[in-house]
Amino acid sequence: MKTLKDFNVKGKRVLVRCDFNVPLGKQGAILDDFRIKQTLPTIQYLIKKGAKVILISHLGRPDGKVVEGLRLTPVQDKLMEYLDVSITKASDCIGPEIKKWIEEMKPGEILLLENLRFYEEELKNDIGFARKIAEMGDIYINNAFAVCHRNQASIVSVPKYLPHGIGLSLEKEIKILTQTIKNPQRPLVAVIGGKKIEKTKLNLINKFSENGDWVLVGGLVEEGIKQKNIKLEHPQKIVGPIDKIEGKDIGPETIKLFKDKIALAKTIFWNGPLGKIEEEKFSKGSKEIAKAIIESGVFSVVGGGETVKFINQLGLTEKFSYVSTGGGAMIDFLADGRLIGLDVLK
Ligand code: 3PG
Ligand code: MG
Fold this sequence. Notes:
By secondary structure, this protein is α/β, with parallel strands linked by helices. The chain is about 40% helix and about 15% strand.
């Protein structure tokens, strides 16, 4: 795959697929700007090199209709605040008016296009729509790791019509996650929680038990495995809870057991809360495990929407070695070693 730095971007119109899918509060305020911050180095690089920067993204799930509350305006404000430059935002993502604006763009300027998912063509991977988007750029850069598992136009089809490569944060995601699953410093301990046990999560558990040493699983994950009568590939490496709090969190004995394993690790991966963290009284297990991972001081990788939100709320994000922007995409990438959105960039 080509990376951003393999291109001569001077004076070129560079379409950057970002993942600005950030959580919004009732008044439209951004509750967590982690994903926006992750895109800044790519944008800053492009400005410095004199590219005409055209940012494209989705936000939420408007299902192919214009939803006023899902416009990218709060993202525009945040980007302007962090980059300290003025950014023009279009109220659509295709159309003659935008084309005209792009013709008038000067090197180093930034244009943010409106939410791609206002068009059902984006969701349906419509080729005509993809072509319209592609026509606006000279180069396509994907920096949206968290959406690379989606078969959508801006991810899988736009790059077919343009020279393409990956942005800086996507490059880092691939590098760190690949190393974590394929070539970790061992012992490798994976902590896997969450509510459901679907096929990809099962693959993830098997992958980590194959390449790692222990997989510590939360209560609901363990129950799911039992209920569905699933045969794990390396059951001897799976460690489940030995006590629980009302069935909604891991108990003190389990916390101790998990901490003992974590203390032996040289690499730790964590995805999915270990209890019903929406309720304060069931968040203790996850808090204790977060602290234990940090205190171990070893290389730690955390990912998944809920888990990342949780550590952010605790103000602990900076304390982990690496925090992935991906949820479903990260699980798929680790479990299967590939993503549809990356395959097309090869
Ligand atoms: C995410 O937050 O998971 C990505 O931005 C993809 O969004 P989606 O799950 O709505 O496709
Ligand atoms: Mg998702």
